[in-house]
């Protein structure tokens, strides 16, 4: 994780956006970058949707697939989206259970940008015939905020 003193303060200091970058080998190696919120005095929701997230089962090494939805209310900082994409890609060869993966992504973003509010929904495809959905939030939903449904239906088989 990047030291806060090393975190970009402006577009000119970004190390990934606008530069050729490779996929980090692990989530620990990945660098999440931030940019100043152009509307820090305005309460609004930003959403990232990762419908093709993959990682590995830590026991079998088999791939796991999820649809992740990250909603946050920015304070001083925004997540720079290319760095988030590379961070998400870094899980492709990383082994962790669904719960660990979902919650650690949410906590990492909170550590980097200190949002007023964040929630992450991890909608995991079945493993061993059982789908696992994992939800985590940081902070309380700000009063007056429009918080839409995450738009991912519960898993349903052919029945």
UniProtKB/TrEMBL annotation:
A Pfam family recorded for this sequence: QueF
Binding of substrate, residues: 79-81, 98-99
Record-annotated active site: 57 (thioimide intermediate), 64 (proton donor)
Keywords carried by this UniProt record: Cytoplasm, NADP, Oxidoreductase, Queuosine biosynthesis
Subcellular locations according to the entry: Cytoplasm
UniProt xrefs under Gene3D superfamilies: 3.30.1130.10
Start and end residues of each stretch annotated as Disordered: 1-38
Superkingdom of the organism of origin: Bacteria
Documented EC number(s): 1.7.1.13
Biased composition (Basic and acidic residues): 1-14, 26-36
Reaction catalysis annotation: 7-aminomethyl-7-carbaguanine + 2 NADP(+) = 7-cyano-7-carbaguanine + 2 NADPH + 3 H(+)
Pathway(s): tRNA modification; tRNA-queuosine biosynthesis
A single GO molecular function term of this UniProt record: preQ1 synthase activity
InterPro entries, sorted: GTP-CH-I_C/QueF (IPR043133), NADPH_dep_7-cyano-7-deazaG_red (IPR050084), QueF (IPR029500), QueF_type1 (IPR016856)
Assigned protein family: Belongs to the GTP cyclohydrolase I family. QueF type 1 subfamily.
Annotated function: Catalyzes the NADPH-dependent reduction of 7-cyano-7-deazaguanine (preQ0) to 7-aminomethyl-7-deazaguanine (preQ1).
Family matches, as NCBIfam families: QueF-II
Name recorded for this polypeptide: NADPH-dependent 7-cyano-7-deazaguanine reductase
Taxonomic source organism: Methyloligella solikamskensis
Gene behind this protein: queF
